[in-house]
Amino acid sequence: MRRILRNIRRRFAKPLPPPPPPPFRHEYKRTWEALAATEDSAKMAVSGYVDEGMYRSHGLKTKRLLEETVGLRPDDVILEIGAGVGRVGAVLAPECRRWIGADVSANMVGHIRRRLADLPNVEAVEINGYDLAPIPDASVDLVYCTVVFMHLEEWERYRYIREAFRVLRPGGRVLVDNVNALNDEGWAFFEQLLSFAPENRPPFVSKTSTPQELVNYLTRAGFAQIEQRQSELFIVVYGVKP
Ligand SMILES: C[S@@+](CC[C@H](N)C(=O)[O-])C[C@H]1O[C@@H](n2cnc3c(N)ncnc32)[C@H](O)[C@@H]1O
């Protein structure tokens, strides 16, 4: 009887639909939504580890970088583009007026809300992957974007810098970073990724920048007082909205 039923089922079962094609690089939402399905998978995608102690110490390291470059002030409204699970927000929020974490992934936004629920001045915002539409003009004092540009197309890198200019108040500061193709560590990183066969490269595979590329974007977007600093394999570029 069971065999007859199985045969009937086989005969009349609809064929499974083919799996959806993998996302293109510019389909940031689809890519990062899947990577951030659980808190642990999100943490692995953000940093390659889940250890909370490491999250805190690396968050403090980024805070120090911000202090030494663009400066941090207690009355700052701060916006992070591509905020992940709030690694940096967790250490910045207690020391600023408001910290806004914007991310393309609704799952990441959910992780931020849960993880930083004790901090009343934290806001997590889902964005479309291409602009900062939910953020009003001239409403922010500091915009930063760290460990994100390597996952973006060049156009989106520039879009976000233009958007940073829009949402910053005059005198507001911006900071962005990426792996620097022009230093030895950055070049070793680039060569390591040669091992992916072109057809197997994941859509989020890291792509480097040069300092000139990032300085060019800030200059063209209208920023002034543009400076740069090397931080291990990263180039960090920052400036001020006149
Ligand atoms: C490597 S993680 C870095 C997270 C965080 N900046 C940190 O340093 O802990 C990259 C983050 O960028 C987000 N992201 C990727 N593409 C994006 C896009 N087009 N717009 C906004 N966020 C994006 C991802 O969802 C992820 O949270």
Task: Please characterize this protein's 3D structure.
The protein is an alpha/beta fold. It has one domain: Rossmann fold (3-Layer(aba) Sandwich). 39% of the residues lie in helices and 20% in strands. It contains 9 helices and 7 strands; from the N terminus they run H-H-H-H-E-H-E-H-E-E-H-E-H-H-E-E. The chain has helices spanning 2-12, 28-35, 39-47, 52-69, 89-92, 106-115, 154-167, 184-192, 211-221, and strands spanning 77-81, 98-103, 122-126, 140-145, 168-179, 224-231, 234-240. It has a 7-stranded mixed sheet, sandwiched between helices. A hairpin with a 2-residue loop joins strand 6 and strand 7 (234-240). Helix 7 (154-167) crosses helix 9. The termini are far apart. The mean pLDDT is 95.
Compact overview of the structure:
The chain has 242 residues and is of the alpha/beta class. It has helices at residues 2-12, 28-35, 39-47, 52-69, 89-92, 106-115, 154-167, 184-192, 211-221; strands at 77-81, 98-103, 122-126, 140-145, 168-179, 224-231, 234-240. It contains nine helices and seven strands.
CATH architecture: 3-Layer(aba) Sandwich
Task: Return the domain count.
Answer: 1
Q: What is the helix fraction of residues, given as a range?
A: 25-40%
Q: Estimate what percentage of residues fall within beta strands.
A: 15-25%
What binds here, in terms of ligands, is:
S-adenosylmethionine
Query: CATH topology, what is it called?
Result: Rossmann fold
The average pLDDT value, as a whole number, equals 95
Count of DSSP strands: 7
What best-fitting shape do the alpha-carbon axes yield? Answer: globular
